[in-house]
Amino acid sequence: MKVLVLGAGVIGAATAFFLARAGAETVLVERTEPACAASGKAGGFLALDWCDGLARAALSRRSFALHAELAREAGGAVGFRPVETLLVATRGEGAPAPWLGAGFRVLERLGEPTTTALVDPARLTRWLVDRALGAGVRLVIGTPEQLEPAGSGWRLHLAGATLDAEAVVLALGPWTETARRWVPLPPVRSLLGHSLRFELEEPLPPTVLFVRLDPARHGLDELEIYPRADGSVVVAGLSRPARPPADPTAVRPDPGAAELLAAAARAVLPALARARRVEPRACLRPVSADGTPHLGPLPGHPGLWLATGHGPWGILEGPATGELLADLVLGRAPKLDPRPFDPARPTARI
Ligand SMILES: Cc1cc2nc3c(=O)[nH]c(=O)nc-3n(C[C@H](O)[C@H](O)[C@H](O)COP(=O)(O)OP(=O)(O)OC[C@H]3O[C@@H](n4cnc5c(N)ncnc54)[C@H](O)[C@@H]3O)c2cc1C
């Protein structure tokens, strides 16, 4: 079967990877470059059971296991690292630690190395694309202008080219809304999130911190600190609703956001003050109306599939999403129940 996958974030990359692995003739179409958006700039935190009790629980659990498998296959190329995960705050019962800033205490252990991990999202996404290309997938860089039914399949028009396929997977993340001119879709909103990447001389221990802050003192109420396997540290926080710019590479931090985040992060972890370089970044996460990703067929449009709306868990759920979409598109028995993710479910508001 010939399949087009639109968007080379982690969702499109994983879908192309699993389609290629199943032997499908696949073309991955990306407007700019793989991992240019949130899938290259996210924290990369993975948790086995933090979505338990939600409709997406089985997807998260399956994907946590797949991350470990892919990391073994990648042999260090994706920056996979099991971690301790702690809740830190200035208020509440807790124990001080010598490496925390004045007033901060450890309140709770949220995860241990068997249940929480980190991956480098940019390296993971690029590795998935590279492996897919190695298995015969074609990567086309271009901006789709029109998608229309053609025979029993679909035709995609790009500047100077057309691509025909039996199936098309829309994996456009926050840019899903741009496909609304071709087909009715459930709403996908965007949240802008800020992050900083610190380069340190001395790597930090493998402990992720979820930090509750005093907004009156720090100007924000929470942040997360991710010490990566390569020695860099990513600090994420400060989210707000936003509209995606036409060009995915034009997403920029709000004025003053990086300074606020940096000051708060250094108050929590004084070691960050010794960074030799700090890179401010911003990216958009795609959010569905009911918080559950849309993974499945678009009703009334045979051969058209949607894969988006992962919100804060797209890196975690990328591998199992790609596996699920490949199985569904190719008509194979899926490894998990796809019904909670049906884009036509009542709460998706198509
Ligand atoms: C600050 C921040 C921190 C995060 N931390 C984590 C975390 O720790 N763990 C976790 O699991 N998740 C995290 N996330 C969420 C995660 O990053 C997203 O859910 C995930 O990256 C979404 O992937 P995607 O492939 O759907 O979208 P994207 O990564 O946005 O990819 C969409 C792709 O489509 C391309 N595109 C756009 N328009 C077109 C077009 N017309 N044709 C072709 N291609 C097009 C874009 O260029 C882009 O490459 C975080 C998000 C943010 C914002």
Write the layout of secondary structure elements.
Elements: E1 2-6, H1 10-21, E2 25-30, H2 38-41, E3 45-47, H3 57-74, E4 81-82, E5 84-89, E6 95-96, E7 105-111, E8 116-118, H4 121-134, E9 138-141, E10 144-150, E11 153-158, E12 161-165, E13 167-170, E14 188-199, E15 207-212, H5 215-218, E16 222-227, E17 232-242, H6 257-268, E18 277-288, E19 294-297, E20 304-308, H7 314-329
Helix pairs in contact: 1-4, 1-7, 3-7
Bound molecules: flavin-adenine dinucleotide.
The site of flavin-adenine dinucleotide has 41 residues, from helix 1, strand 2, helix 2, strand 14 and strand 18.
What does this structure look like?
- The chain is α+β, with helices and mostly antiparallel strands.
- The chain has two domains: 1-80 and 119-185 and 289-350, FAD/NAD(P)-binding domain, CATH 3.50.50.60; 84-113 and 188-288, D-Amino Acid Oxidase, subunit A, domain 2 (D-Amino Acid Oxidase, Chain A, domain 2), CATH 3.30.9.
- 23% of the residues lie in helices and 33% in strands.
- It contains seven helices and 20 strands.
- It has an eight-stranded mixed sheet with strand order 6-7-5-15-16-17-14-18, with helices on one face.
- It is elongated.
- The model has no long low-confidence stretch (mean pLDDT 96).
In short:
With 350 residues, the chain is of the alpha+beta class. The protein has helices at residues 10-21, 38-41, 57-74, 121-134, 215-218, 257-268, 314-329, and strands at 2-6, 25-30, 45-47, 81-82, 84-89, 95-96, 105-111, 116-118, 138-141, 144-150, 153-158, 161-165, 167-170, 188-199, 207-212, 222-227, 232-242, 277-288, 294-297, 304-308. A hairpin with an 8-residue loop joins strand 6 and strand 7 (105-111).
